[in-house]
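Progress report, Aim 2. The chain analyzed during this reporting quarter is listed below.
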Amino acid sequence: MLSIRTQDRMRLVPYGYVYIEQNELGRRFKTNGTNETEPFYSYDLHIYVDKVISIELGTYATKERALEVLDSITAVVMLEDLVYQMPKEEK
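Predicted structure tokens for the chain:
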């Protein structure tokens, strides 16, 4: 059975349906010198542990990084009896 350890290292959860959730954190001024703003986001990986309960595995600043981590999990799913440690956010 594959288990995944959360990014904060506080939980070890059995593998299930993993998904990425995009969260708008606020707005920031665009870098084009105008007063226009644009949203900025965080990308959280979640896992369903049953039909209605999900647990956050980790949070990433970019969608690309969240997808890299999800790809990494996908590569490990083929193996049995492993614990995957969610990587820390890169600064």
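Residues 3-85 form one domain. The chain has a mean pLDDT of 86. These observations will guide the mutagenesis work planned for the next reporting period.
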